[in-house]
Structures are given as structure tokens and as C-alpha cells.
Fold this protein.
Amino acid sequence: MLRVEHLQVGDLPPLTFEVADGECLAVEGPSGAGKSRLLRAIADLEPAHGQVFLDGAERNEMPAPQWRTHVRYSGAEPAWWTDTARPLFPTAARVDRLLGSVALDATVLDRPIAVLSTGERQRLALVRALIDEPKVLLLDEPTTALDPQAAALVEELIRFHVLSGRSAVLVSHDRGQIERVSHARLLLPKAAGGAATGERAA
Amino acid sequence: MSYVPLTPMDLVLAAALLAINAAISWYFRLELERSLTIAAVRMVVQLALVALVLKLVFGQTSPVWTALMGLVMVLAAGVEVASRQHRRIAGWHVLGLSTATLLFVGMTITGLGVGVIIGPDPWYAPRYVLPILGMVLGNTMTAISLVLDTLTETAHRERNAIEARLALGARRYEAMSSVLHVALRTGMMPILNAMATTGIVALPGMMTGQILAGADPIEAAKYQVLIMFLIASATALGSFFGGLAGLLLLTDKRHRLRLDRIVEAR
């Protein structure tokens, strides 16, 4: 279970909420409300006051790299630093299965990343984030570059991740997607919203 | 050893050559006359002052004065590094770390070069220590500037890739490794080029000076080789420490990329 306590992100009031195992929480709010920053803060990629617990262990109790292997942030603009994706993916049947589940052929790993389409890169990034089976997946707009068919496959993959007893926090502008994938919602107030805390609606 | 001393008139003639530059600048409206004049005047004043100070220090052969002069040079170089960055790391860290690096590198390399290898009597003879320290500091300063500048620029540009690596569980050294490589290569580039082409395109300034002063070219070349080795090792050490310190300043203990510590130069 992921528990966020009094997490202070940007101008937002301190946020407190939980995401149970087997649950996907959607974060909603106007553009610029700090949704991405919230995800980045949970992954400890950005300094933020407050506490975040995973199964009772606070993030500061373990080295940050270890925290991030359990609480995995997948950014809105997937970035790459190698010529092909091959060095980032272990050779395993599991990898081929994951790639197949989002309609990617294993040969995609050996093509130069620069020639892959935006949609291919986005799906590849999701697979990359899932390889080592993180407990919590923090997804920032995971399907913006995808056509409806590919988006449906990605949603299926997220659902599968959650159904296997792990959890996810999803930031998405797609109302339909939020309804299809998430179990609960967190509404972020407007930045200068005063005392109102994040409201959790079922 | 003999050389032809220059009279003040000789220098005035040389300065007249500069007037040709100014004339060209004026004719083509390059608007460089002003900066050209200021730079020329600055150079004359600075060199005259340095010559006076050196004459004084050389006359003393005192370890205290030599050390003091060296310290002033280190501080000046440190300030220069800190002020040259386009995207600066906020606070006094850069000044502190570059001065510390320059002090360490300058002392070790010059100490080894003069004290152990050249071995003048006394070992702290300012005539040897100060010029060599100057060359070591000048090159190390350029190297540290290049390394820090490249490090901050590249980290800024590669932010997404660095954070993606961190998000996948990389430690800060691992996530920044390719950025650090680029920075270190950039820092080492001038000395690598200098070593590879020296003597073919132009004779190094120090060797030219020795030859003009009447030294045997073979002896002058030997000194130049020694100096190049000293400068190259100083540059490597300076780049390494500068790069490592820069990496630590751009990240934190929680292995986060801290671009918020960078401020744009005004």
C-alpha cells in the first residue's frame, strides 16, 4: 500500500491519501495544478516536504534508487540515452510478452530509437517501466501519442499490473480512460486554493 | 645568453600597428575600436604591474612572498572560473570548489615540477615557481570552466534522459555518466589539441621566449615538453575534480537532479 502524508508539492496544500494494493488512483485537476510534480515528488525525483510510505516503509528509510525501483515514475515525455533500446531491456521471454501485449515486435529493440514513431516510443517506455515489476506505477499521460487501439492495449496492461496486486497512480486528460482504468480519484484544487486538501472521491 | 633589449620607442612602433586594426574596424563599422583600445591599455597596465611585482619578488627570493603571490594567482583564477559560467550553480560553491581545486592542483603539480623535477636552488625560487604555477593555473582554469559549463549545459539539455535513468533506479553517478564524459572530454580537448599540434603550427609561447632570450632550441624544447606534461596532468586532475564536484552539486543525496540550483547568467 502506498500512503502519502502531508506531501507539500509546489503551491498545493499538503496532500494526504492512500492507494491500496490492487487499486489505480486517478489524479485530476486543471492544467498546471501540479499533477506531474505530485508524481515526481512521490517518486522522490523532486524535493517535497511530507512523508510517503510504501508498505509501512518511509522513502527516506531506503536509498532513493531502491525506492524508485519499487515506486516507478514514467514521465509524459519518455527519454532515451542509447542508440537502440536493446541495452535497456534484458533478454527474457517476459520482455517479449510485455512488448507483444502492446503490439510491439521484439525487433523494435534493435531499431534506432530515433526512427521509431512517437507512439512506439511511448509504448516502449511503458514496457521499460514495467520490466522489473515495480509495486507502484506512477503514470503521467501514458497514451497521449497513441491511437485508440494502442491506447486500449496500454490500458489493458495497466489494468493487468493493478490486478496482479500492485497499484498505480494515473494522470490523464482522458475522462474515458480514467473511468475505464481507475478505481478512485484524487481531485487537486487550484493552486491558490487555500486550505482545501485533496479530496478523494470514489 | 644574449638578447636585444627593447626600447620604449620599439613598443610605441608596435602599438602603432594596432592603429591599423582600429582603422579597419572604423572603416567597416565593426565598432571594435573601443574594446580594442581598452583591451590594449589593460594589457599594458597589467603586464607592467606584474613585471614590477615579479621584479620585487624575484629580488627577495623569499618563500613567504612567493607563496603569497601564488595564492593571489590561485584566487584570481578561482574568481575567473566562477564568473565565466553561462548557467551558474547558485551560491558560493563554485567559487569555493574551483579555488580549492586550483589550489590543490597548482600546489601538487608545480611542487612536483619545480621542487622534484627541475630542482632549482633554493627549491622555492620564485623565478621558476611563479611562471610555471601561472601556466598550470591558466590551463587548469580553462579546463574547469569548460567542464563546469559543459556539465550544466548538457545536464540542462539532457534533463529528461537523466531523470528517466534515475526513475529506473540508477544512482546519480550512473545517471550522469554520459553527461560527465562529455564534460571531461571537452575539458581535456584544448590540451590534447595543443600537444598534438604544438611546434607544427606555431611554437609555444614559452619556447619562443626562451629562444628569443638566447637559449639553445634543444634546451628550450626540453623545457617545453616538461611544461606540456605538467599542464596536461594539471588539466586532467582539474577536470576530474571539477567534474566530480560539479556532478555532486547538480544532484543531491537522494539521487535527484537539482537543476533548480542553476541560475542563468545575466
Remarks:
- DSSP finds ten helices and two strands in chain B.
- The mean pLDDT of chain B is 91.
- Strands of chain B lie at 87-89, 262-264.
